[in-house]
Amino acid sequence: MASDxxxxxxxxxxxxxxxxxxxxxxxxxxxxxxxxxLSQELVLDDHxxxxxxxxxxxxxxxxxxxxxxxxxxxxxEKITAWLKDCFNFRDTGWIDTCTVIISLLNEKNEIVxxxxxxxxxxxxxQIASLNASKSExxxxxxxxxxxxxxxxx
Length: 153
Hints:
The protein has one domain: Roll (Pnp Oxidase, Chain A), CATH 2.30.110.20. The protein has 2 helices and 10 strands, in the order ββββββααββββ. It has helices at 77-87, 89-92, and strands at residues 16-22, 27-30, 34-36, 40-45, 57-63, 66-71, 98-105, 111-127, 139-145, 148-151. The strands form 2 sheets. Strands 1, 2, 3, 6, 7, 8, 9 and 10 form an 8-stranded antiparallel sheet that branches. The protein has a two-stranded antiparallel ribbon with strand order 4-5.
């Protein structure tokens, strides 16, 4: 059922969910204060431009890294184990990828929009600077690189 202009409400940016899915069906969710990097860029070959009619020949698509920020608190055990395993890849010899799903929700917790980071791996796990002169919440940032970003809703 399509909504009309009298019932449609624009989505808010602060109501979202982040889910992780691994091969084999394991799933986990975590709360984050901020998600950034839901973008991708068309990579053009500038050397193939032969006229002013085209900006360049497309070579591929480059997705931005997904950056997840949250207050430091216990993180889901599956997510923590995955992060540790990835950063200790020398011990195992490989890195397991996962699918990261970011869902924008409405006031009824229904999905309004969804982005899927395919074959994601963590490339950075950072704690905010500890600074005794500031009164701020301690935060951590997880940066994920993925092969493809899909908007499927």
